From TrEMBL:
InterPro entries recorded: Bact_HTH_transcr_reg, Chorismate_lyase_/UTRA_dom_sf, Tscrpt_reg_HTH_GntR, UTRA, WH-like_DNA-bd_sf, WH_DNA-bd_sf
Keywords assigned: DNA-binding, Transcription, Transcription regulation
GO molecular function annotations of the record: DNA binding; DNA-binding transcription factor activity
Designated name of the protein: HTH gntR-type domain-containing protein
Keyword Transcription regulation: yes
Length: 231
């Protein structure tokens, strides 16, 4: 993991641990470079990443300030780490329905930029907050990049495992949103009826080098899902 990413994660953890309020002033660039024993250029990259994540904002001539991202229970549509981090304080849980190796279909191969027939992990999960299911997820992971997954990992944060266990550098994501009519086999997991409307989000996650490793389809319950976008 690049040093600037490690520093960004540490700063975010300190903001959460100390429950710093919106507008709290943080140390300046020189002080941060000294604190983490890195160059100012590394700190500039750290601050750029933190701004992209919505954790801080900078005011020229005034300093670096905490940006409290959202209301509790809302999912960010611009972050690149799934939604486990957004919902930790809301008692989010994940239940694995399916975890198996399958052969990439044409659709999967096109999105993951692999060859039809290549092995991929297929994961189905339901996500709930305090027992109320709000999302049904189907994800496909390129096994050339995600070399190992099991149910214990999938019931926690897969992205934490990818970063800390596999040292995968997660770069960016693409998200495609639409309102769709849910199929019966998926509706049952969301406690809906067939053809009820859901928010459908198709997502592609890429490594820092630009290789797609996760192709996901997420179906969100219309009554129990909340989202936010930072601009």
């Amino acid at each position: 993991m690049p040093k600037y990413v490690e520093i960004a994660q540490d700063i975010e953890q300190r903001i959460k641990a100390q429950d710093l309020l919106q507008g709290t002033k943080l140390a300046n660039i020189t002080a941060l470079a000294s604190q983490y024993s890195v160059s100012k250029n590394t700190i500039l990259k750290t601050l750029q990443l933190l701004e992209e994540r919505g954790s801080i904002y900078q005011v020229q001539g005034s300093g670096i300030f905490v940006r409290r991202k959202k209301r509790r229970g809302y999912i960010s549509l611009i972050q690149n780490r799934g939604f486990t981090d957004d919902l930790k304080a809301a008692d989010e849980t994940s239940k694995v329905i399916t975890l198996e190796t399958i052969s990439a279909t044409e659709e999967i191969a096109t999105n993951l930029q692999c060859t039809i027939g290549d092995p991929v992990y297929f994961v189905e999960r339901v996500h709930a907050i305090r027992g109320q299911v709000f999302c049904f997820e189907q994800s496909y992971y390129n096994q050339e990049i995600v070399t190992f997954l099991n149910r214990a990992i999938a019931e926690d944060s897969i992205f934490d495992y990818l970063e800390k266990g596999l040292n995968l550098q997660i770069g960016f994501s693409d998200k495609y949103l639409k309102v769709a009519r849910v199929k019966k086999e998926i509706a049952e997991f969301l406690e809906l009826s067939a053809k009820d409307p859901v928010l459908f989000i198709e997502e592609l996650y890429y490594t820092a080098s630009g290789r797609p490793f996760d192709f996901s389809k997420n179906y969100y319950h219309p009554d129990y899902s909340q989202f936010f976008i930072q601009s």
